[in-house]
Known about the structure:
Blueprint: H1 7-12, H2 15-23, H3 29-36, H4 44-59, H5 76-82, H6 91-113, H7 119-126, H8 133-139, H9 154-183, E1 187-195, E2 198-204, E3 213-218, E4 224-229, H10 230-261, H11 265-290, E5 297-298, E6 304-309, H12 312-320, E7 328-332, E8 338-342, H13 349-363, E9 376-377, E10 382-386, H14 399-413, E11 418-422, H15 431-447, E12 451-455, H16 459-467, E13 471-478, E14 485-491, H17 499-505, H18 510-519, H19 522-603, H20 606-640, H21 649-695, E15 709-712, E16 719-725, E17 728-732, E18 737-741, E19 745-749
Parallel strand pairs: 5-9, 8-12, 8-13, 10-11, 11-12
Antiparallel strand pairs: 1-2, 2-4, 3-4, 6-7, 6-9, 13-14, 15-16, 15-19, 16-17, 17-18
Helix pairs in contact: 2-3, 3-11, 4-11, 6-8, 6-11, 9-10, 19-20, 19-21, 20-21
Amino acid sequence: MANKIIQKTLNDLEFSTVLKKIEEYCISDLGREKVIQIKPIERSLELKDELNQVNEYLASFENENRLPNHYFDEITKEIYLLGIEDSFLEGASFQKITSISKTVNILLLFLKKFKEYYPTLFIQSENIDLTKTIITSIDKVISPYGEVIDKASETLHQIRKEINKIRGKIGGSFTNSLGHYSSLGYLDDIKETVVDNQRVLAVQAMYRKKVKGSILGNSKTGSIVYIAPEATLQFARELQNLKYEEQEEVVKILKELTNTIRPYQDLLKQYQEYLSHLDSVGAKAKYANHIDACLPRIVREQKIYFKNAIHPILWEENNKQNILTVAQTIELNKEQQIIVISGPNAGGKSITLKTIGLLQVMLQSGILIPVHERSEVSFFDNILTDIGDNQSIENQLSTYSYRLKNMRNFLRKCNANTLFLIDEFGTGSDPELGGALAEIFLEEFYEKGAYGIITTHYANLKVLASELENVVNANMQFDERSLEPLFKLHIGQAGSSFTFEVAQKNGIPFRLINRAKKKVEREKIRLDKTIAKLQKERNKLQAYTDALVKEKSIAKEGSEKLVEQQEKIQDKINSFQELYDNNQKMLSFGRKSNEFIHKFFQTKNKKQLQAEFLKWAMIEQAKHEKLKEEKIENEFRKSNNQKEKPLSKRERTKINKAIKVQQKLKEEQLKKTEKEVIPEVKKVRKKKVKVEREKAIKIDGYQFQVNDRVRLIDGNAKGTIDKIEKNIATINYGFFIAKSDVNQLELVQRAHPKSFPKKKS
């Protein structure tokens, strides 16, 4: 792809406004510079690589392994100084170099670890050397605060040790002088102050000759003289000499360190370039996240299919005013090479045109675009635009002259890899003559195989679009009642200009509109009326179609939910059935076991019990294995379309494996079902007990009788009264007998169907 997108196209589509928005998301000055300089990328491989990097960065926002922070301080000055012989860097500069080296190292290690998540970002970082030598060398000499540390050299360590001693002596001598002259009453109330970073005595002017030292100043009134004590001055001179030696040693150390880092000048330049580029990629990704953009599918065949496309600048402006931005779906391909959009002004024709152009330029500049993820697009060598009033004052050209000059460039550059966008095609001259010339231009673009979108009011262009095979008419929809624009593009039909209707809506008197109609050819009015009528009918049909599609979607969704629920219910029924069968089996086993136990109670013969029990268990196991094998064999034959015939050894082995797998799955399913069923069974039992308790009869004054069915007030077990003595009832529960006070009982069923005694009034 040899990209030839010119600056005029970028200006027409307001590309710089998008770049300014992206710039706001940068974290460094160099990143901002890179964003402002973004242009359409010429090489297709480089473009795809850039788009993939931005897309991977965008994906990191929803990823647990988010990209590490890549903020950095610019080191352009430091890189420049490293290239000058005998120059040296300051501590703060080395601190910046350490910081940028650590940042890059962290990123390189991160991308190497997560290269499966970020393959393109990893490949882009793969050629950058990871080295800790720079960091280690600087950390040995420079502190985190940008100062040369004491251990940088033995000489520096010794000098700073001497400096600390001298400072101690200076402090001690000044304290002695302060105490001495203060006791003599020579000092002012403030006693001391600081002049030129040096402690001085605040001496009253009348005693200045009695204090030995050097006068460094006085107060504004002259009543106080600031004197540095003589003893302190001697130590201060020593300190000055040591500081000079310290500075000399620091410069020597910094020069040595600079010489150590100098061979890494190119690597540091690469580090800074890498972080600047990553900053611009990150800014694009953050902007994409803001406008809900994505990377559409890139295809080889020449094509544009933007589904639910949004103009990002318009979207920003509408959001500020709480206005809904209508998404557009548009497609250009071999069968739909050129689209001619017509219709009234202020209907959204120009915005649709600019949306396609801006999104295509954004994509070819490595910026993700706000479209549906199933959109498809290819790259164009040329994107040519003719949008707006291009009157040139400098060259003294009229709008039409300028547009003719522009058309000349179009004709020269147009080919099968060109996308052209022309707003108000053919305007600026006599309608008939200009329309005829515009018609010829459109035929030329068509013959050259160029792809494009034009907007027009010219009827002859609408007719030509319907005649050419791969050119289609389109219109922007209008509400036929309110004549308000709907901002929706409809492909396949030319649009009415609604000239007289819009004029009437805007308050132009009806008599003037009628006079205007008389001046226009009757056939043209009829054509316009026919187009308007067709458009109204199509709008109604479109609304009806949309409603049907919506209803169909809702019905389909409801049907899918019902099917899903039915499957879940069927699974539960199967699980319940299996659980019920197992329970019945357990009851059967229980009855058989009970039979063995009763027989043992009668005969007391252990051997007979063991033999019979073992025999019964073996029979049950054989039945179980046979049923299981038959079931698996049937399923095997059914899945393999086999008729009834003996199975081979290999098939038997396969079946046995399948049996084990199925058994394991059933056990897991059974456990899952039990977890679901047991709580429900407990609830049902609890409810049943509650219902039975409500049915129980408890009547004041009722005299319990023998054979009454009763239970304890707080109990569940029911029994029969055998006898009653002194309000103590003996209750037979079948397996055991218990006694209880009759006041603690409630009646379940009377022994005799006699009426209850009436309560005494």
